[in-house]
C-alpha cells in the first residue's frame, strides 16, 4: 500500500501534469486565433496592393465608416502583420516550452507509477 | 495530438485499447475537418450570393429605381438607387473599399475560386482520414474477434 506521503506526491505530480496540459491547449488555441488573423490581414494587404491610388478606403470604427488615406491604411495593416508575426513567434516559443515541460512531467509520472507498482508487488 | 508523432506504426501490433484511442482521435479529427468543410461551403455560397446581387442590381437600367433597404432582417426603409457605378466591399479586418461593380464581381469570384480550391484540398484530406479510420476499425474488429474465444 502506498503511504500518505507518496500518495500526495503522486497527486501533486498529476495535478502539475494536468496544468501543463491545459496551458498547452490554451496556447495552441491562441496560436490558431493568431493564424486566422494573420491570414485575414494578408488578404487585406494583397487587396491594397492591387488597388489603384484613387480608390476610396474606409475603416469601420464602431458603427461608422471613416474614410482613410491609402498610405495610412497600408501602413496600419503592415504594422499589424508585423505585430501578429512576432506574437506567433512568441506563442510558438511558449508552446515548445510547455510541450517540453509536459513531456517531462509525463515521464516523471510514468516512472512514479512504475515505482508504485513495484512497491505494491513487493 | 502532441503524443502522435509522425512515425509509422504497424497497426496490428497495437492493443485493442490503443486502437480504440487511435480510432476516437481519428473520429475527432474527421468531425473537425467536416465542420471546417461546411463552414467553407457556407462562406462560398455567401460570396456567390454577393455576385448574384451585384449582377442583378447594379445595371444601368436600374438607376433611379426605388428599392427597399433592409435595416434589420425585418425592418425596411424605401430608397432609390442613385449610383449603379460603385459598391462598397468589405475586404476584412474592418476595411471597406469602394469598387466598380465589375471589379467587385472579380473580387468575389476570386474568393469563390480560392475557396473552391481549399474545398477540394480538404476533401482529399477527409477522404484520406476516412480510409485510415476504416482500416483502424477493421483491425480493431479482427482483434476483438480473435481475442473473444479466449475470454469465453
Mean pLDDT score of chain A: 91
Uncertain spans of chain B, ≥5 residues at pLDDT below 50? 1-5
Radius of gyration of chain B: 26 Å
Q: β content of chain B, as a range?
A: 5-15%
Number of domains of chain A: 1
Spatial strand sequence of the major β-sheet of chain B: 1-2
Organism (chain B): Lipomyces starkeyi NRRL Y-11557
Protein name (chain B): Prefoldin, alpha subunit
Keywords (chain B): Chaperone, Coiled coil
GO biological process, one term (chain B): RNA polymerase II core complex assembly
Write the layout of secondary structure elements.
The complex is a heterodimer of chains A (122) and B (152).
Chain A: H1 4-49, E1 57-61, E2 64-68, H2 70-121
Antiparallel strand pairs in A: 1-2
Helix pairs in contact in A: 1-2
Chain B: H1 16-57, E1 66-70, E2 76-80, E3 87-92, E4 95-99, H2 101-151
Antiparallel strand pairs in B: 1-2, 3-4
Would you write up a description of this structure?
The complex is a heterodimer of chains A (122) and B (152). Chain A is mainly alpha-helical. Chain A has a single domain, classed as Helix Hairpins. The radius of gyration of chain A is 25 Å and the shape is rod-shaped. In chain A, strands 1-2 form a two-stranded antiparallel sheet. Chain A contains 2 helices and 2 strands. The longest helix of chain A has 52 residues, at 70-121. In chain A, helix 1 (4-49) packs antiparallel against helix 2 (70-121). Helices cover 80% and strands 8% of the residues of chain A. Chain A has helices at residues 4-49, 70-121, and strands spanning 57-61, 64-68. The longest helix of chain B has 51 residues, at 101-151. Chain B has 152 residues and is α+β, with helices and mostly antiparallel strands. Chain B has a two-stranded antiparallel sheet with strand order 1-2. Chain B has a domain at 45-140: Orthogonal Bundle (Helix Hairpins), CATH 1.10.287. In chain B, helix 1 runs antiparallel to helix 2. The A-B interface holds A 24, 37, 40-41, 43-44, 47, 51, 55-61, 65, 68, 73, 77, 80, 99, 102-103 and B 2, 88, 91-99, 107.
Amino acid at each position: 500500500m502506498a503511504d500518505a506521503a507518496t500518495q500526495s506526491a503522486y497527486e501533486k505530480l498529476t495535478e502539475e501534469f494536468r496544468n501543463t496540459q491545459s496551458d498547452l491547449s490554451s496556447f495552441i488555441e491562441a496560436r490558431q486565433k493568431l493564424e486566422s488573423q494573420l491570414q485575414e490581414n494578408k488578404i487585406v494587404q494583397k487587396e491594397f496592393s492591387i488597388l489603384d491610388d484613387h480608390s476610396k478606403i474606409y475603416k469601420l470604427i464602431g458603427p461608422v465608416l471613416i474614410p482613410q488615406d491609402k498610405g495610412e491604411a497600408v501602413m496600419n495593416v503592415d504594422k499589424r502583420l508585423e505585430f501578429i508575426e512576432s506574437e506567433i513567434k512568441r506563442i510558438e516559443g511558449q508552446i515548445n516550452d510547455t510541450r517540453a515541460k509536459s513531456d517531462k512531467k509525463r515521464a516523471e509520472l510514468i516512472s512514479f507509477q512504475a515505482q508504485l507498482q513495484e512497491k505494491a508487488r513487493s | 495530438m502532441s503524443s502522435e508523432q509522425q512515425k509509422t506504426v504497424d497497426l496490428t501490433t497495437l492493443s485493442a485499447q490503443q486502437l480504440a484511442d487511435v480510432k476516437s482521435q481519428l473520429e475527432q479529427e474527421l468531425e473537425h475537418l467536416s465542420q471546417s468543410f461546411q463552414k467553407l461551403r457556407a462562406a462560398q455560397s455567401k460570396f456567390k450570393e454577393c455576385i448574384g446581387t451585384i449582377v442583378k442590381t447594379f445595371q444601368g437600367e436600374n438607376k433611379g429605381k426605388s428599392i427597399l433597404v433592409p435595416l434589420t432582417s425585418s425592418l425596411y426603409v424605401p430608397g432609390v438607387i442613385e449610383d449603379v457605378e460603385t459598391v462598397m466591399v468589405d475586404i476584412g479586418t474592418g476595411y471597406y473599399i469602394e469598387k466598380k461593380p465589375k471589379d467587385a464581381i472579380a473580387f468575389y469570384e476570386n474568393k469563390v475560386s480560392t475557396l473552391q480550391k481549399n474545398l477540394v484540398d480538404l476533401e482529399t484530406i477527409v477522404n484520406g482520414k476516412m480510409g485510415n479510420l476504416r482500416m483502424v476499425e477493421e483491425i480493431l474488429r479482427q482483434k476483438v474477434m480473435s481475442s473473444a474465444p479466449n475470454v469465453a
